[in-house]
Amino acid sequence: MDVLRPFDPWKSPLCTCPRKYSLHPYTGCSHLCLYCYATSYIGRRPSTPKKRFLQRLKRDLRRASNKLPVELSTSSDPYPPEELSLGLTRETLEILQSRGFKVLITTKGIGFIRDEGLYQGVMVTITTLDKNLASKLEPGAPSPNRRLDALSSIESRRGVRIDPIIPHLTDDLYSLKDLIRAVRDSGAEHIVFSTYKAKPDNFKRMILAFPEMVKIWEDLYHVKGEGISGYRYLNAKLRYRILKPLVEETLKLGMTASVCREGFPDLLMAPSCDGTHLLQPRRR
User: Cβ(165)–Cβ(171) under 8 Å?
Assistant: First the structure.
C-alpha cells in the first residue's frame, strides 16, 4: 500500500485504536500547531498536496477492504486553508464513497461543512475555548468558536478531541468542564482526551512561545516524567488525575468518553477510543 495504509502509530504499546486505514491527501499542515508531533517526522511546513495522490489512492483501493474504516487524517489535517481552493480532500471522499468505504474525518478545520454527505462521522480537535491562547498554540487554525459553530451546523455523527491537554496552560478543570459543556451543546456524542506528549522539536517551540513555563515543563516532563515510544509523558499519576474527572464529566453529560494513548483501560468508556463507532447509524 502506498498512500492508504493500515493505521499503526509507530507500534505504540498504549494505542487502543480499532483496525482502520489512515489517509493523508496533504503533506505538512498549515495550521502550524506548536505542539504538533508529526513535525518531528516531516518537518514544519504548510500543507502541500501529495504528488499524484488520487492516482496512487485508486491503485491502493484495488487491494483495500472496505470493511475497514478510513480516517482522514491522523497527522496532516485534511481541511487546511488550501483545501478551499484545491478540493483534494473532497475528491478523495468522492472516490472513497464510490468504493463503499466509511470515513471518519479528524480535523481542526471547518471545511467538512461543505462535504457533508461524503463521510459518516467527524471528530473536531479543540484544545481550549480561550481564542487568544488558541491563536498562539494553533496560529493557522480557525478559532475554537468557529469550530464549534461548524460542528453544530452538520447532521452527521460528531465528536471532539480535547487534545493535547497541556499542564499549567490548558489543564484548568473548570475551563475544561466549560469546554465539555460547549461540546455537548454543539451536538457532539463523544470526546477523546489526551495529554501533551513532548518530543524535542515541539517542546522547543512550546518553551519559546511560553518562556515562563520552561522550569515547570522541564521538571514535569524531563525530571518527573517518563519516556514512552519516543515521547516524554507526564508521570502516570498526574495524567490520571487530570483525565479521570474529565471522563466522568463527559459521561455525566450523556456522551461517551475515552483517552488516547494514556494506558488507563478504566478510562476507555466508549465503543471505540477514536470515534470510529460514530460511523454506525444512530439507533432509532
Answer: yes
Grid cell 515510544 is found at 229
**What are the CB-based long-range contacts (under 8 Å, 24+) for 81-84?**
81/30, 81/47, 81/109, 81/140, 82/26, 82/30, 82/46, 82/47, 82/49, 83/26, 83/47, 83/109, 83/111, 84/111
Secondary structure E strands in the chain = 5-6, 21-22, 26-27, 48-49, 70-72, 103-107, 121-125, 157-165, 190-195, 226-228, 231-233, 256-259
240, three cell numbers:
490520571
Give dist(CA 236, CA 240) in Å, integer. 6
The domain spans of the chain are 5-279
For the stretch 41-99, pLDDT in tens is: 888 999 999 999 999 999 999 999 999 999 999 989 999 999 999 999 999 999 999 99
The tens digit of pLDDT for each residue in 206-258 reads 999 999 999 999 999 999 999 999 999 999 999 999 999 999 999 999 999 99
Which residue spans within 42-171 are E strands per DSSP?
48-49, 70-72, 103-107, 121-125, 157-165
Q: Which three cell numbers stand for residue 33?
A: 500547531
Q: Which three cell numbers stand for residue 162?
A: 480535547
Class of the domain covering 5-279: alpha beta
What residues form DSSP beta bridges with 233?
A: 226
The 8-class DSSP code of residue 198 comes to B
Q: Report the distance separating Cα 69 and Cα 42, nearest Å.
A: 25
Nearest C-alpha neighbor of 191 from the set 104, 257, 271, 278: 257
**What span, in angstroms and rounded, lies between the C-alpha atoms of 89 and 84?**
9
